[in-house]
Each structure stands twice: as C-alpha cells, then as structure tokens.
C-alpha cells in the first residue's frame, strides 16, 4: 500500500516563519521525502535565494542548541530522531517582533526561518537528533546576528526535558550567557 503526504506550508504567528510538511511517499520499503523543491515553495508564495551551505548537527537526547538568529535565511529539518523547536522574532521593525513560536519536530517537518528570527531546539528522543540546516549565506565567525538565551523565562518556551545548566552536554556556556529577549529588544 502506498501512502502520499503532499507538500503543505503553514504560516505561523511570526511574520515569514513557516511550518512545512514535505511531500512524502511511503510504501512497504519505507519513505521517500522531498527535502527541497523550489517550485513548491514558489507556488506557496515563498521564493528563496539559493542555499550556499548545509550543516547537519547531531545532538544527544536532552541537549539544547540555540537561540541564534544569524544574517541568513534557514530551512531546517530533522533527518533522524525528534526535537522540540522554538523561534523568536528579534527583527527591528517586524510586526511580530518579540513573538515566539514552538513546535514538535520529526522527519517530514521543516521550518523556514527568516533572517533575524532566532532558532533553537532540544533533542527529545531516545537517540541523538540529526538536525539539518540549509543556509542562504555561508556561516563565518563573527557574522552579523543576534542570540537569546534559550532559558529566558520571558520566552515561555516549554522545553519538554529538564535542563541541567551545569551539564555542557545539555547546554553550552555560550547559550547560557546569551542575553535575554528584553535585553535584545532594548526593554
């Protein structure tokens, strides 16, 4: 039996941030997922510049990465495992500045992240999460961007697993030391 899931793009409460369900075809052998099809995004009203770098992180269960908003658009997806994702709009002049969006992530679900929206996640499964990032600019040390600590209570992020702030396998010192959202927004 063949099961097909069509491409679907859902707008979120953050301007330009979209939750994407990739086209998938599943049969007795397994599943084939379209990772990216430019025409599908164009037909949904999202013309993307070309991707110039693709990274894959592998994060142990319970580990948190983020919240980072570099000067690039990102298309993120889970290649293996599960995660809980969170995004916050830090863009000057954005009508949704300060808004937070959260979603459970699994293979087949992507998030299109506009430049200046901070991206973070926690690996939630029993095995490491492989998180794929497609970037429209090559990452470079010191590049323009913003970061917010993922543990800022004002974000209201409901991380599903407890986080030990003294355990570097769960959160980096850099992410702990990042500013709060109020600091970033100048409040």
Q: Could you walk me through the main structural features you see in this protein, from its secondary elements to its overall organization?
A:
Helix content is 9%, strand content 40%. It is mainly beta. The longest helix has 6 residues, at 38-43.
- Summed up, the helix count is 3
| Estimated share of beta-strand residues | 35-45%
Q: Which whole number gives the mean pLDDT?
A: 96
Q: How many beta-strand segments? A: 14
Span between termini: 56 Å
Shape: globular
Question: SSE order, as H and E?
Answer: EEEEEHEEEEEEEEEHH
Query: If strands are numbered along the chain, what order do they take across the biggest sheet?
Result: 2-3-11-8-13-6
List the uncertain runs: none
SS-based structural class? mainly beta
Helix share, percent: under 10%
Largest pleated sheet: 6 strands, antiparallel
Radius of gyration: 16 Å
Produce a short descriptive summary:
This protein has 187 residues and is mainly beta. It has helices at 38-43, 173-177, 181-185, and strands at 3-5, 8-11, 18-21, 24-27, 30-33, 53-59, 64-70, 74-80, 83-89, 100-105, 109-113, 117-123, 129-135, 145-147.
Walk me through the topology.
Layout: E1 3-5, E2 8-11, E3 18-21, E4 24-27, E5 30-33, H1 38-43, E6 53-59, E7 64-70, E8 74-80, E9 83-89, E10 100-105, E11 109-113, E12 117-123, E13 129-135, E14 145-147, H2 173-177, H3 181-185
Record keyword descriptors for this entry.
mainly beta, 6-stranded antiparallel beta sheet, globular, 5-stranded antiparallel beta sheet, 187 residues
């Amino acid at each position: 039996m063949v099961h097909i899931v069509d491409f679907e793009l859902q707008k979120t409460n953050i301007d330009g941030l979209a939750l994407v369900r990739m086209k998938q075809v599943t049969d007795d052998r397994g599943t084939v997922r379209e990772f990216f099809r430019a025409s599908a995004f164009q037909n949904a009203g999202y013309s993307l510049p070309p991707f110039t770098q693709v990274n894959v992180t592998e994060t142990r269960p319970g580990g948190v990465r983020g919240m980072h908003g570099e000067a690039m658009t990102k298309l993120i997806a889970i290649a293996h495992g599960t995660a809980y994702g969170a995004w916050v709009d830090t863009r000057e002049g954005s009508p949704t500045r300060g808004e937070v969006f959260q979603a459970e992530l699994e293979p087949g679900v992507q998030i299109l992240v506009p430049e200046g929206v901070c991206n973070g996640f926690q690996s939630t499964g029993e095995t490491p999460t492989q998180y794929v990032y497609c970037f429209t600019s090559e990452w470079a040390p010191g590049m323009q961007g913003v970061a917010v600590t993922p543990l800022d209570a004002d974000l209201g992020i409901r991380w599903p697993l407890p986080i030990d702030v003294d355990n570097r396998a769960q959160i980096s010192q850099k992410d702990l030391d990042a500013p709060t959202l109020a600091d970033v927004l100048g409040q």
